[in-house]
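Researcher: Go.
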Amino acid sequence: MKKNLLMNFSIDHTKLKINIEREFSAVLEKVWASRTESDIIDKRRAPRPFQTKTKVMDFKEWGYWLYVMVWPNKEEYWSKTDFTSIVPLKSYAGKDSFCDNKGNIDQSLPRSIWHINFNQNWDSTIVSIEITYNNLSDLEKTIEMWFKEWITSAFKNLDEIIM
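Model: Structure:
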């Protein structure tokens, strides 16, 4: 496994964006599968000891992913991603929202648009993520919800899975 993998995380309060760039020591196909196949996502998405469970994964344009994050005390937090574009092994985009277990959007919690790009770099793959918010309060609420720590932990889980 490659040491010193790239990890950039920045917040642009003016443009209402979070930008993440992360290198993985794996070929493009493995990294793509880790973000698009529910059996792999469920193993790496949540920081330990939390769990992710997919209810629906319809990975296609205008399809959606409905999943729950289960805390150790059995408390559940549901989310839904509506896929808006997919270019296999290159990129995908979607609208991300908190919701109930039927996929009804919770308007009181932050919503965002994710653009994810994949680039093969010799024996590693670089994933670039741009997350855009409609307003500053949604961006700040996401940061307050330990987003950076959560995604960093998810990336470490993925490193273990794709080794």
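Model: Strands lie at 7-12, 17-24, 51-57, 64-70, 76-87, 91-99, 112-121, 124-133.
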